[in-house]
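The material for today's practical consists of a large collection of protein records. An example says more than a description, so a record of this kind follows:
***
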Amino acid sequence: KMPREPTYLVTCACKQFCAELYGEPFGGTGCNCYCNDCVAACCYVDEKAKKEGKKNISMRCADYTGAGASVAGWLLGNFKIIKGKDKLQGFRMSPKSPLCRTYTSCCCTPIIYIGQKFGPRFRGFNRNCITSAKDGMPYKPDVTPSVMGKFALAEAWEKAGAPKSNVLPVSFISRVLAVTFLPWLFPGSQVVVEEEDKSVPGLFIDASKVTEIATADTYIKAGVKVPRAVQAAASAARKEN
C-alpha cells in the first residue's frame, strides 16, 4: 500500500510537533468559534505561554478581546501525528467537562481542539497552525463562518466575520450526527485505536483523567461569561479552603 501524500501539515511554533492532514476539512472550511469556553481556552493557553516565556501560535482568529477560536476539523482516519505525540498536554475548562483540549508542552501552542474517549469521529485543529504540505503557505479558506454568537462577547461578535450563526449551523450539526451514527458513509471516520493512543490527550484519552483544569479567572481575563459549572467549582474550592 502506497503511503498517502499529505494535503496539509499542522505544526507548533517550535516545530517539535507535526501532524499530516489528508484531504480537505470535514464539514467545510472550519469556523471561528465564539463560545465562552473556546474564547477562554485561547486565553488560558496564551497566558500560559506568556508566563513561561514561550512563543506560541495562538488559536485566536483575531487580535481583539473575545475573538473566537480558529478551528478546522479532520476525520480520525484523515490525519496522522508524525512527531511530538508526547508533547501534547491536555486540559479541561471545568472539572466536569467531557472535552479535553490540548497544547504543546514545548511552546504552549494549542493544537487539537477537542479529543475525547468515544467522542466524535473527527478532531478539530488550530487553524493558525495549518500550512500547505506542497508550498508551506498558511491555510486561508475564502469563507470562514463565525459561530456560537449567542455566547459571544457583544463587542467581539460585532467584529466577527460573516457569515454568522448564533449557534452551530444546522448543516454542520447534521454532518456530525451522521458521521457519529452512520460512520460507514464517511470514509476515514473509522480507525483502529492503538493502545498507546488511549492515553494521549487530544486523541482517545478519558477526559476524566485529565487533571489540568482552567479556573473562573481564565474566563474573567478573556472577558466572557463564567459558566455555572465553573462558578460551582470555584465556590466549592473556596469552601474547602
